[in-house]
Structure of Flagellar hook-associated protein 3 FlgL:
Amino acid sequence: MRISTSQVFMSNLDNISRNNADLFKTQQQLSTGKNVLQPSDDPLAAAQIIKLKKEIARNDQFQGNIDVSQRRLEQEEIALDQLNNINIRLREITIKAGSEVLTAADRKSLAAEVDEMTQQMLGLMNTKDVQGEYLFSGYKGDTAAYAYDEASEQYVFQGDSGQRLIQVGPDNRIASTDSGQKLFEQIQAPELPYVSNNPEGVLNGVSLVNRDKLEEVMADKELPLDITVQDTSTVPPTLLIEDAAGTVLFDNSADPTDPQNQLGNELGISLGINPSVPPAPTGPFSAEVDLRAEKTNPLNIALKLQEGLEGLDLSDPEQKEAFRTLVADTLDTLTQAEESNIQARTSLGARINALEQQETVNTDYQLFTKETLSSFEDLDYAEAISRFALQQNVLGAAYQSFSKIKEMSLFNYI
């Protein structure tokens, strides 16, 4: 077989080019520290590298979510702890207010302190997180959780019951917020009388005077109370009150002016009679009164205490009894608020611990994943440097051999 001069040159050129390419690849590996520079270098390793990098990125997102959740929960814990301190101080004020040695001026001073603490509570319950969203508004992060409603003259919850869950692990989601609906709106207020049926409009209001008396009378009675106003022209009006079974509970028709026949003394409630209703013989007029317990919140508990401290005149026996009832009811609702606060902080502590444990799991998994990635992607410098030195020698030898071979020609011997 005849070998032409061009074949010799092309063969040596290919050899030098191949050695140059191998050397250049090794140089790139040494400069980047990566063993696989492109998928064609090792398709199986390249596929594993892509998969492992996705796992690392996802795990980084989980760790970021943990940081966000921890900030929110710790901020919530601080707010709840401060609210609990205010609750304790409100209890102290309530107990102090029940003392009969206090003057009206003393009670007004306590009312001013209660008002200040109410504003502090409002600020805490409208706490914002680091993203500027209201912490206790549920999904309505742009809306303040609580605001004073002029129509009802109470503080109302403006958020919703939403609870934000954040993924902190492949199969683990943690609630990073709590709605004020759950934290503050579950306090059971004492049962209060209300007008449930008033077709002729004879009643214009009902209020509690003596809770103990009402509970004593209604212990074995059926609701609602049937109210019959016999004569609206008398002072006080002539009333007949029966329970749902028809048992007569109050009847002052014999002598309405007798103090023993006053409704507040007999049933512990007070009824307002509408003066615009024509007097007998147009009557009698009927109505019904029932009892119901509504949900309340710490703001309205404090607001009601403040109003009682400022507005009730304890020189009046009926208002004094109403104030005594207010003190007892306030202490009861404050106890519920304290229990709710403790439960909320217990839940927060459990979630913060869960986040710390998940963070440890994620860190260990991240370390393992990065070690696996390194085994596929990272360069063995000792092996690469040895290979680089060998490739340099091979390339040098190729250049030297080519310089010798190119001089070999028959023309040199003719």
User: Anything to note?
Assistant: The CA atoms of residues 114 and 306 lie 6 Å apart.
